[in-house]
Structure formats: C-alpha cells, structure tokens
Amino acid sequence: MLKVSNLTKRFGGIIAVNDVSFKIEKGEIVGLIGPNGAGKTTLINLISGFYIPDRGKIEFNGLDITKKMMHERAKLGIARTFQNPRVISNMTAHMNVLYAVLGSPYGKNITMTEAGAEAIYYLDLFGLLKKRDVLASDLAIYELRLLELARALALRPKLLLIDEAMAGLNPAEAESVSKLINRIRNEFDLTIVWIEHVLKVLMRSADRVLVMHYGKLIADGKPEEVVRKPEVVEAYIGEEEL
Amino acid sequence: MVKLEPRRGRLIIHFFGRKYEWTIEPRYWRNPIIGLILWLSLPLLLYFVARIVFNYPPIALMSTLIYANLLIMMSAPFNLQTIGTGRLNFGPHFFLAIGGYTAALLSRNYGLSPALTLPAAFLVGAIIALALSPITIISRGVYYVLITLLLPFILGEITYWRSDIFGAETGIPNVGLLFPSTGDVTFDVLIFVYVSLVISLAFLFFVDRTLRSRYGFMMGVINEDEDVARSYGINVNQIKMITFTFTSGAMAICGWFLAHYQGSFTGAVWLMPSFLILVLLTATLGGKGAIYGVVISAYFVATLREVTRVTFGELSVVVLFLILLLLLYFLREGFWGLYRKRRYREYEPSIKVRRQT
Amino acid sequence: MLDLLSLVVAYTFVNGSLYLGMALGFTITTGVLRIFNLAYGAIFLIAIYGTWMFWNDLGFGLIESIILAILLVAAFTYTVYRVVILKFADLEDYMLAALVAVFVIVEELIGYAYPEVVGVYVPTMVYTETVPFGVASIPGQYLVVSLVSLAMLGIYLLFFIKTKNGFIMRAISQDMVASKLVGVNFNRTFALAMVIASIPPAIVMLLISPVWALNPYIGWTVFTYAILVAVLGGLGNLKGSIMAAYIIGFIQASVGFLLDPRLMLLVALVVVMAVLIVRPKGLARAETIW
Fold it and tell me: B87 with B250: CB under 8 angstroms?
C-alpha cells in the first residue's frame, strides 16, 4: 500500500530523515519507534505531505504522491493525527469532526446535515457523544486524543498515521485507546503507521516495527526480533525494559 | 443533472453530482424580515417626512444613507475576505478605486453605459485580484497587512504619474449617471439610495449564504489553522484565491456605483487612509463574521460622520475617529455582540494577525 | 553623463542612509519587539511640528524646542503603547485599525493647527555648503543626515547584540502576550525599547526637514519608505534593512535622474512587491536581528 524509497529531508544542517526506505502492506499495524529527535514525526510529515522531501519517492497504492499537496493526499486516503493535539479550539468537538467528514472523498456528495449526522457517528464510536457541543479548548487530554482519532477516521482514510496517541494518558486511558485503535483497524479495514513511546502497548498491537535513530532506519521487522537487535537496544539505553 | 428534493425544513439541490442543502427555517425569518422591512422603508419615510412635514429637501440626509450603504458594500465582502483568506487586508479601497476608474474611464472615453461598465469594473477588479491573490498564500500576518497597506499608494502614484489618463487630484469628470435624471435632484438621490440599498442587500445575502454553507465552514477552519485544514482535505489555496478574487471584484463594484452616482471619479478621495479606517472600523464594530451587525455599524458610522462634519467642521475626522476608537475599546464584540442568538451551530471566528500558518 | 552617474551614486548613498534612518525604529519595533506600530508615521510629524510649536509659538530656543519635541515623541509613543497596544493585545485586528486611526488623528490635528500655508520651517541646517562628489555636488546637509543615520544604526546594533538588556528584549519578543502574563516588568522593558526606537527617526527627520518641503501629510510618505525598507529587508533584520535601504535608494536615484522623477516612488513600490513574491519574508535569510 505504501512504498517509501530513499526518503531524505534536511533542515539546514540537520538531516532529519536520512535515506529511509520501507514498504507497508494493506491491513498492517506498523509501529514506528525511536528516541526523541529520531525523525519519526518528520517521516509522518513527509508521508502526509506537510513537507516535501529533498530526495526520494513515496508511492501510495502505486501512485507517486511525492509532490502531491496535503489536501490531495487526504482525499486519496491518508489521514494523520498530531503529536500535540491540533484541533480547532474555537469550535466544538462536533464541528471538528464535521470538517473532516466534508474533507473526505465522499464529502462533496453529502449535505451539511448528513455530514453532521456522520460526524455524530464518529464521535459516538469514540465515546465523545456527550461532549459533542463542548468547545475543543475545554476538553481534557484524553478526550482530545480521542477527538484526533475520530477526526482522522472521519476522513475515511485507507492509511492512518498516528503520532503518539498515548502521550499524557494514564495507564487505563492508554489501554482503552490502544484497544480502540485495534478495533478500528479491524472494523474499518485500515492500515496504520503508529508512532509511540509507550512501547509495551505498541509491541502488543503492532504486526511490524520500524526503528529510527538520528534520521536513519535501523531496524524493520517483527516486534520480538527488533527488540533484541543490539543497535536498537543501544539507541534505547536507559529506556524501560520491554 | 440538476434535481430539487424537498425535505422537512430544507431543500436539497443536486447539482451535477454534488449535493447542496438550503435550510428553510421560517421560525428564524421573523427578525430578519422585520429588519428588512424597516430598512427598506426608512429612506422613503425620512424623505417624505423631510419634504412634506418640514418642507426641506433632505439631500444631506439621503447622501448619508448612501454613504452608509457604501460602507456596507465594502464591509460585507471585506469580512468574507478576512475569514476566507485568514488575512487582514489593509487595502480594500484599492479595489474600489480600480472599479471606479474602470467605470469612469470606460464611460467617459468610450461612452459605455453603466450596464456595461458594471461587469467591466467587476472583471477588471477580479482579474487584478486574481493576479495578486498569491500574496494570500505567500504572505502572512503583519507582512500581509503592510503589503496590502501599500497597494493604494501604488495606485495613487500611478494616477499621479499618468495624470493625463487619471486626472490626478481632480479625477475623471463627465461620467454618465446611472439613470437619466427625473428632473428633481432630491428624488434622484432617493433613487440612488435605493440602488445602493439593493446592492448592499445583494452583497449581504451572498456573504451570508456563503458563510452558512460548507465553504463558509471550511473558511472558518482555514482561518483558525491552515495546516489542519490542508491535512483534512480542504484545498486551502484554491479557496483563498477564489475568495480574494470575488470579494475584491465586489469592492470594485462599489467603485462603479460611486462613479455613476457622482458623475465623476476622484481616486485620491477614496485612496486615503481615513476611508480605509472607516471601512475597517465598520467591519470590526459590526462584529467579526457577523453580517447583520455590519448594517448597524455602517449606519452608525455614517450618521456619526455626518453629525461630526456638521458640528465640528475641520476637526470632524479627529472627533469621529476618537469616538470610534472608544467604541472599539468598549464594545469588543461589536454591535452584534449586543444582540446575539446562540445556536448550536454557531461559530465565532477569531481574526489572527500574528499567525504561524 | 558622468555628472548624472555621480549624482546617482551620491543620492543612492544619501537617500539610502536617509531611508535607513527612517526605517530603523520601525523595523526594530515591528521585527524585534514584534509590536506592529502602525502609528509610527506620526513620529515624524510630531517631531517637526512639535519643534515648530515650541520654537515659533511658545518662544523656546531652538535646541530646547528640539529636546521638548523629542520628549513629546517619546510621550506619544509611550501613550500609544499603553493605551492602544496593551489594551488590544489579544485583538490584533482592532489594534492595527486603531493604530492607523491614531496616525490619522494626529495628522488631522496637525493639519488643522498648522495648515500648509503657515510655512513651517525648522532651521536645523548644520552644514549649509554643498559638497562636491565626483563631477556633481550635493547639499552638505544630506551628508550630515546620512552620517547620523549610520551612527544610529551602529548604536542599535551594539545595544541589541552586545548588551544584556538587548539580548533579553530579543528573547522575550517572541511572544508578547505570554510575556504580559509573566510580569509587568516586561511591559516596562518593551515600552522603553519602543520609546528608544522612536527617537532616532525623529532626529533624522529633524535634520532632513530644512531641505524638504514640509506639510502635514508627509507622514504617510515617510512611513511608506519605512515600510518598504523594513519589509524588503525582512522585519527586524538590520543587515536586511541596510541592503534594502540602499537598494531602494539606488532605484530612486537611477529612476529619478535617468528616467522620470514622477516614477520614483512607484518603481520602488513595484520592485518591493515583486521581491516579496519571491522572498516573502524579505531579503534577510532569517528573522534574526543580524
């Protein structure tokens, strides 16, 4: 579904993403881990179109999307969440999902009222129905993370890029989010790339794991295998035991 | 192809594969209809009271009403442009002058009728706006403010440089009037009042519809966070450029009206910063994104302007601006804030100058 | 031909330095402090007409009048900061409109008190002779203005780059609203910086006034040049401002002497806008002070 070849992105003297190549098959949950500053979010930004790479190619279902604009990629079926929840504070939860519904490939063929109803459906999926008329600025972090996911799902994506769904959540909340992600992957036939620091949870859900360090991809394989690699352990010295 | 589908409380329009919805909620019509009737009858009322009761031709009164409508004609598209581009344009009067000069020149030099100069003015304004529209994408925040602030000066310099064409300070005289005179000057002015009123209504209606539609909603998203808008399928660049083009064309129509109302067009008068401030303050005092508040603030500003002109003569601008500044400070939500109905769908836009996106 | 070219070179230097002096306060205030003071143009009017008022109407000596006028400029800037900028800190669209309104108010007040016919004249001529430059010659006063502008630039640079206060101002200017939350002291620092930034343009204006035709409406012309230099150079970047000022000076000089004087400002405006399309943040590579 997604093929990334020799992707490179520089910011001045810093090479954030350095010659990264990998493939993702339909239906996989691929974890993307690595220490802070490894380039994970930059990689997501490159795939979603936030940045244009300096070198390399991105192919989505056979189509070369390297130079395509963000909104075109969204319409093709790539949705992403943000590391720091980036919802529109001035609008309610409902409105925040509504524009995603309108932005989806099917958004043109439905009326505002129908879109509103569909937005309610997504809010309900994530248990946010009661909060639908609450301004996003008044939501708690857990609800915001759910809202980010609901909004991303409303885009009816084929590929979902999750950037740290569990930061700032307590263990119970993290567990519930993780269950939700697994559930939506099955129900909506999604392919997921998931950046996460809460490794315990990620390792359980992921089919495959990519490890980044200083912009380079240092490992690509099943969770149990990747975790044992010396390069990965070295990159993570000081992290919790897996 | 095109199909209409009535439902309860709304009309669904199928238009070449897309679906649009027109919400028809008569319970919300009462106040607007009352307001509309009041607004439409006000000029007639004032006219007859002045003429028959006081036996005095109310030209100053009528031209105040025209000025108020002019402010509406500028502020309504201005508000739409602010929301749709997410930027504050400090040069809306540039497009007014473009429209005015186009209409005046075509009318005087080629004898074109107002019916023809209208689309011409709109097109010239829109085309220039389209050419300039990339700045809504490239420039942000205070850069955008400063660049748009400079636009009227550029036009001013051009009119001085080619004063043979543009008439510099004296402008372009002998422009055809909108309609042949009825013989009674005061009655003519009354007709102009209604013409400007109809145009204002048309602009208000169009802006209101746009803001209530999905495009208005998407504009709100763009205005708040462009990156999120792009990430969620909104073609931000396209919306900005189209908004900028059409609203600027609308402002050019204001210039067209002025040219055929005054029978001449003097850019210098309209390119001044004081006019810019009146438009800006009318738009902001009306309440951000609130359309009908603009009507109230426009009439308020126009009336205040006339009153200060009569009372203070040369210092009128100073007094006017001081009062408006005080209002700006005390009435942060604009006139619309004094009267507001909160519906669950209502979104109040915030206008950011210092922005990251 | 040679005399024309000498004039072009001479006036590039002279005009460029003049515009630099005019723009310094604005680019510092807007770019470093991130305070978008659209009432900046009023400084020039207050400096000149304030001096005239104190000297001609109130009978003070010339030097005292100048000092008083500069104090008036400082007071004006401070008042604008407290009354407009702080009050509307979270409503920037209101603030910008209000600032332009303040500018117009000042302009109209001065126009009312001293209409053009009054013939305001500020005798700050320091050097009355002309100075030969190549084959041509330029009024010496222009050179005085240029040297003073450049001196101001040097002072600004030293302050913002070398001193601790300057460094602090640059650091906290990133978010004015947030600094407001942190403490009142920051407000005092900002106000001080803004006031200090407004004084050199006043001085430059006073020095150029003997050779210019004065009327209450030159505020906008001067402000336009300040905007052009600041925006072309990149707001807050002093290196950019220098480049921009001399580029604009060159454009003006060459268009004025070689083409048509009426096109001077127009060409400058068009060139700046064209550059901004390619480099939206101006010529400077980064939004730093140097």
Answer: no
pLDDT tens-place string over residues C7-34:
888 889 989 999 999 998 898 888 777 7
Of B227, B229, B348, the CB nearest to A50: B227
- Residue-number span of the structural domain to which A6 is assigned: 1-77+157-242
- Is A83 within a domain? no
Instruction: Check whether residue A52 and residue A99 sit in a common domain.
Output: no
A46 within domain boundaries:
yes
Supply C257's token pair: 């002497």
Structural domain tally of chain A? 2
CA torsion B213-B214-B219-B225 (nearest 10°) is 150
User: pLDDT tens across C62-96, in order?
Assistant: 888 889 999 999 999 999 988 888 888 777 778 88
Cα A215 to Cα A235: distance, rounded to the nearest angstrom: 12
The pLDDT of residue B318 is 92
The predicted-structure confidence for B285-330, as pLDDT tens digits, reads as follows: 887 656 778 898 999 999 999 999 999 888 899 999 999 888 888 8
Of A67-71, C32-36, C156-160, least confident by mean pLDDT is C32-36
Structure confidence at residue A238 as a pLDDT band (50, 70, 90): low
Give the pLDDT of residue B349. 61
Angle among Cα A107, A108, A114 to the nearest 5 degrees reads: 60
Nearest to residue C128, comparing CAs of C139, C119, C117? C139
* Average confidence (pLDDT) over A107-131: 89
Q: Domains, chain B, ranges and CATH?
A: 57-338 (1.10.3470)
Domains of chain C, each with CATH number or no CATH:
2-124+133-278 (1.10.3470)
Do both A110 and A7 map to the same domain?
Answer: no
Residue A82 covered by a domain: no
Instruction: Determine contact: B236 vs chain A, CB below 8 A.
Output: yes
Pick the closest to residue C142 from C121, C127, C154 (CA basis).
C127
- Spell out which chain B residues touch chain C, with contact meaning CB-CB distance below 8 angstroms: 82, 88, 90, 134-135, 138-140, 142-143, 145-147, 149-150, 153-154, 157-158, 160-161, 273-274, 276-277, 280-281, 284, 288, 314-315, 317-318, 321-322, 324-325, 328-329, 332, 351-354
Q: Are B140 and B352 in contact (CB under 8 A)?
A: no
Q: With CA atoms as reference, report the closest residue to B103 among B114, B89, B93.
A: B114
